[in-house]
Design brief:
mainly alpha, 4 strands, disordered C terminus
């Protein structure tokens, strides 16, 4: 007797010894049923092919691929597109699939049935490799006709290869087009920054940061020129003052000489000329033209003094001729005029130099502010130039990647083996059904034995008596073995003759 579903080893032995024929019978029945199902159920055949992913012929260090999406994601996306209604309906029409169900079943249900018969499985990378990128994928098509399964598998595989080539080409073209648009915008911005920088350079020409040192050098040179011009102007003023004094003395002497040619007047004129000669010799060398001319004038005047008593009558006759200014006075007047011209030129030159000095000083003073603005414009221009160069480099790389895609030298799908023509059905598999029938029969037999053990209410042990009667056992009557001449029924009665003696 079993209480609370607890079965001991002795119970198992007793039940199995009594009902040993139940497990073999259940196993045989289930095996027969499984084999019958494997024969009766409709056959389905699976055609399979493996598609490998060929790496690009050109290393990625030279030409970076445009398509960088993980193959698992791309494969899932392609699977959704290829197994869509627009792709599978032409296959159904092409091979005339489900011809008997077309009038009774909605077309979307037929597409769904065909979709379920197609399986795409990524190939697992080899163990121990560092690269975890999947090397390829397999396409399996299960159908009730082996030839149709092979043909459908071939079409589905071709769709995957065409879709991959078309998707990579379109993505490369879109990337190149997008980069071209961005490049045009970047070029427009770069041209605008270039125009601003050029306008700024024209506006602040001479005040740019790289011209500061040149401005300082020019300013020092202009100061030197101003100093030299000032000294030259001072000398000219001194010369003019000196020539004016000479002219006044010459005019006085000449006017005095007009009144008469007496020796006293000539002596006074000679004394004045000697004083002028002394002043010129203090300033100039003896070879100076003015010194030589004045010396000649003195010599001539001395000769006139010496010849004055003899030529008195002749001088009186030439009084009208002597009224004309002598050459010395005319030369002094010409020299004064030249001094005025030189002073005017030096004054004008001094004003020009001072104007240039003010301009250079303004440039030097404005240089820090101009430098700050120039740095901002240069920084903006450099950023636009770097962005443009970066886009130009990416556009060129994208164009090379597009050419690589067009020449089919990039990552491509390659069919390792063509779709197989199955000779044996993949469903039902007799071996799998037989194994399943054996396992199910054995489980069923053990379950039946368990139920039989639970349903047995007989008392076999002292513990069973105590649990059933809830009284202690005082004594046991041993089992009497049956003699050879007794019947089987008598033997069973003797085995069951054990009586529990209980307290009153």
């Amino acid at each position: 007797m079993i209480r609370n579903g607890e079965i001991g080893l002795a119970d198992l032995r007793r039940v199995f010894r009594q009902y040993w024929w139940v497990p073999p019978l259940a196993t045989a029945g289930c095996l027969t049923l499984a084999l019958t199902l494997s024969v009766v159920l409709p056959k389905r055949y699976t055609s399979q092919t493996i598609v490998l992913v060929d790496q690009p012929k050109v290393p990625s260090d030279y030409v970076k691929p445009v398509v960088t999406e993980d193959l698992n994601h791309r494969l899932a996306s392609m699977q959704e597109q290829i197994l869509s209604r627009t792709r599978l309906e032409p296959i159904i029409e092409k091979f005339g699939l489900y011809s008997q169900e077309r009038g009774r079943v909605h077309p979307e249900d037929l597409v769904e049935r065909l979709k379920k018969s197609v399986t795409v499985t990524p190939v697992t990378p080899m163990a121990g490799t560092q690269d975890r990128t999947i090397p390829g994928f397999s396409v399996s098509v299960t159908f009730d006709n082996p030839l149709l399964a092979q043909q459908i598998c071939s079409d589905i595989t071709s769709m995957f290869m065409e879709q991959n080539t078309r998707a990579r080409g379109q993505q490369a073209a879109r990337t190149t087009s997008f980069l071209n648009q961005q490049l045009d915008g970047a070029k427009a911005k770069l041209d605008a920054q270039d125009a601003k920088l050029a306008q700024f350079k024209r506006q602040y020409l001479g005040s740019l940061p790289d011209e500061e040192q040149a401005n300082l050098s020019l300013l020092m040179g202009m100061n030197t020129q101003l100093e030299a011009n000032t000294q030259a102007l001072s000398r000219e003023q001194q010369d003019k003052a000196f020539n004016e004094s000479l002219l006044s003395q010459q005019e006085a002497n000449w006017k005095a000489a007009q009144t008469g040619h007496n020796p006293e007047a000539l002596e006074v004129q000679l004394s004045a000329l000697e004083d002028q000669l002394t002043a010129l010799q203090a300033r100039y060398t003896p070879q100076h033209p003015d010194v030589i001319k004045l010396q000649n004038s003195i010599e001539e005047l001395k000769k006139r003094i010496a010849a004055a008593p003899k030529t008195t009558n002749a001088a009186e006759k030439d009084t009208q001729a002597d009224a004309i200014e002598p050459p010395q006075i005319q030369q002094l007047r010409a020299r004064l005029h030249q001094d005025d011209l030189n002073m005017a030129d030096l004054t004008k030159r001094q004003a020009q130099i001072q104007e240039q000095i003010r301009l250079l000083q303004g440039r030097v003073q404005a240089s820090p502010a101009v430098e700050q603005q120039f740095k901002e414009l240069t920084r903006s221009y450099q950023s636009a130039l770097d962005f443009y160069n970066d886009l130009l480099k990416k556009r060129d790389q994208s164009a090379m990647a597009s050419d690589l895609e067009n020449q089919q030298e990039s990552e491509q799908f390659r069919v390792l083996d063509p779709p197989s023509l199955p000779s044996q059905p993949s469903f039902p598999n007799k071996l799998y059904f037989a194994g399943g029938g054996l396992g199910a029969g054995l489980a069923l037999g053990l379950g039946i034995l368990y139920l039989l053990a639970l349903s047995d209410q007989s008392l076999y042990t002292e513990r069973d008596v105590e649990l059933a009667l809830k009284l202690p056992v005082l004594a046991l009557i041993p089992v009497l073995e049956a003699t050879p001449g007794r019947s089987m029924r008598s033997s069973r009665l003797e085995k069951l003759s054990e009586v529990a003696v209980t307290k009153a």
